[in-house]
Amino acid sequence: MTIRPATPTDLDAIMAIENASFPTDAWSTQAMAAELVTEYSHYVVDEDDDAVIGYAGLRSIRGSADADIQTIALLDARRGEGRGRAMLRTLLAEASARGAREVFLEVRADNPAAEGLYLSEGFEEIGRRPRYYQPDDVDAIVMKVKL
Q1: How big is the CA angle at 110 (ends 108 and 115), to the nearest 5 degrees?
Q2: Tens digits of residue pLDDT in 90-143
Q3: What Å distances lie between residue 34 and 7, 14, 117, 144, CA to CA?
Q4: Backbone torsions φ then ψ of 15, nearest 5 degrees
Q5: What CATH number does the domain located at 2-146 have?
Q6: What residue spans of the chain are helical by DSSP H?
Q7: Pairing of strands 66-74, 124-133
Q8: Are 1 and 85 in contact (CB under 8 A)?
Q9: Which among 110, 101, 118, 108 has a CA at the least distance from the CA of 65?
């Protein structure tokens, strides 16, 4: 398995995972395409046998003290293998290299596996956004880690 920078040619594979992972609130193809080419974003894909099995994204302006994890998603069949953790660590290293000292994220309150991953990597809950994820009315847990 290989984690590498995402390119626009990965868009279809990313969107297939996006739509399967987030059926009610997936990003649009246009929004994801824009994320892949902006200088303030850094997206990676995880490949196995030349097939994209996951992706993750960071928003981090070089020189800014903070950054945001935008998304991490894997094919359902590939969850629980440590690949999400590997992509998260890759994004945290990139945030640090860009000068960030803190990284923030939101996680769905109904996703204890993801919340557990973030807690195990040093993130702490700093707040909640009620009914943030629509149309599901699910709270967002806001988390932060210091680098």
Answers
A1: 60
A2: 999 999 999 999 999 999 999 999 999 999 999 999 999 999 999 999 999 999
A3: 11, 13, 27, 25
A4: -65, -30
A5: 3.40.630.30
A6: 11-21, 29-37, 83-97, 112-120
A7: unpaired
A8: no
A9: 101
pTM (two decimals): 0.95
Residue the block writes with tokens 């200088």: 39
CB atoms within 10 A of CB 109: 16
The phi, psi pair for 4, rounded to 5°, reads: -140, 160
d(CA 80, CA 143): 21
Closest to 26 in 3D by CA, of 35, 16, 36, 41: 16
Token pair of 31 as six digits: 């929004």
H-only helix segments in 38-146 = 83-97, 112-120
